[in-house]
Write a structure and sequence with these properties.
single chain; about 160 residues; mainly alpha; 2 domains; 5 helices; Protein MIS12 homolog
Length: about 160
């Protein structure tokens, strides 16, 4: 009695037992595809880290190139360019070279002064570090020497007491 409605339904709705087998195969394929997706997606973190490292290196290279282009082409003043302070030299060409030499000497003197100041600062820092290290080493040596002296006196007293007894 129960087979009749199923058979009737199968003939009316064009539903057969092979359809169930096909759905089972589709479900098995779906599980396999899901497993492949999960396996591939588990590697996305590593791939994203590799991509981030690649992009950082690329950005560093591009920023270095951009820095050199900016310094060489945009931020540098050509030697034949006259700044507003140098406008009077336009009229007096004979003094132009003399002014350039004086300007160059002034810049070199200022750079030398800055270098000397930085050297003095470095020497002061090195001197402070040296004094600290020397004082620390001397203090440590004094503490060690006093400790050893006390140990030697204690040993001497013990030996002296043993000899007297």
């Amino acid at each position: 009695v129960s087979l009749l409605p199923q058979a009737l339904r199968g003939t009316v709705l064009w539903f057969h037992a092979s359809d169930c087998a096909f759905q089972d195969c589709l479900n098995e394929l779906r599980l396999v595809v899901e497993a492949v997706f999960v396996r591939k997606l588990s590697g996305t973190e590593e791939c994203s880290q590799k991509l981030q490292i690649f992009l950082q290196e690329r950005f560093k290279r591009l920023s270095c190139r951009m820095d050199t282009v900016l310094v060489n082409n945009v931020l540098s003043v050509p030697p034949n360019m006259l700044l507003p302070d140098d406008q009077p030299h336009k009229k007096y060409f004979q003094r132009l070279e003399e002014a350039e030499v004086c300007g160059r000497q002034a810049l070199l003197a200022e750079l030398e002064e800055q270098r000397e100041q930085s050297v003095k600062k470095m020497q002061a820092v090195i001197g402070e570090v040296n004094n600290f290290v020397v004082n620390h080493i001397i203090q440590t040596c004094i503490y060690t020497t006093v400790g050893e002296k006390n140990k030697i006196q204690l040993c001497r007293d013990i030996i002296h007491n043993e000899i007297l007894m």
